[in-house]
Write a structure and sequence with these properties.
This protein is an alpha+beta fold. The protein is built from three helices and eleven strands. The chain has one domain: Sandwich (Jelly Rolls). The protein binds fe (ii) ion. Fe (ii) ion binds near residues 81, 83, 88 and 138.
Length: about 180
């Protein structure tokens, strides 16, 4: 039977109700992979998402968000960033996302300065979802047009979080946009 978006929202709610930590978030990642094979859902909610993001669901009890994201750009590369006190699950629907996980190697004592090392790279292909738990720094690259779902533990535009310029070794507070 087709796994529907309504079922995904209900299961995500139940997963966080049962365990608000890594276990619940991992359950959302697993269930998102089931949703990503629902072609009707992708057609209705992602195909036309040629840029930016659209809110699909906000859980009023636990404050997590499910957003549709997309780009029609070619060779789009994002800066490394964290998700502040939140977490994020990325699930690929169309195209691919090249992910890089970064490790911060300085002590954080110098204001505005950060040194990062890339520790892992992988491609997220259609039907695959990845959890970036609290504290993880990652960057995304889209070599061709892509559509993806992102689930976040809260509204990332309202919390303190940072982006990183690896070459210049600079850390910047992110502003909503
Ligand atoms: Fe992210």
């Amino acid at each position: 039977m087709t796994y529907t978006f309504d079922q995904f929202c209900a299961d995500s709610h139940a997963a966080i109700a049962k365990n608000s930590g890594n276990t619940g978030r991992e359950k959302i990642r697993e269930n998102l992979e089931k949703l990503l094979v629902n072609e009707e859902f992708i057609k209705e909610n992602l195909e036309s998402q040629s840029s930016g993001k659209t809110l699909l669901y906000h859980d009023k009890d636990f404050d997590f968000y499910i957003m549709a994201h997309g780009t029609d750009a070619r060779d789009r590369t994002g800066k490394p960033h964290d998700h502040g006190a939140s977490w994020a699950v990325y699930g690929q629907a169309i195209g691919l996302t090249n992910m890089t996980i970064w490790n911060r190697i300085d002590d954080g004592n110098q204001i505005g300065h950060a040194e990062l090392n890339a520790i892992q790279t992988f491609s997220l292909n259609p039907g695959q979802a990845a959890l970036f738990d609290t504290g993880i720094i990652h960057s995304t690259a889209h070599p061709k047009p892509a559509r993806w779902i992102r689930v976040t533990g809260t509204n990332l535009d309202t919390i303190e979080r940072y982006s990183y310029d690896v070459d210049r070794q600079v850390i910047n507070r992110m502003v909503p946009g």
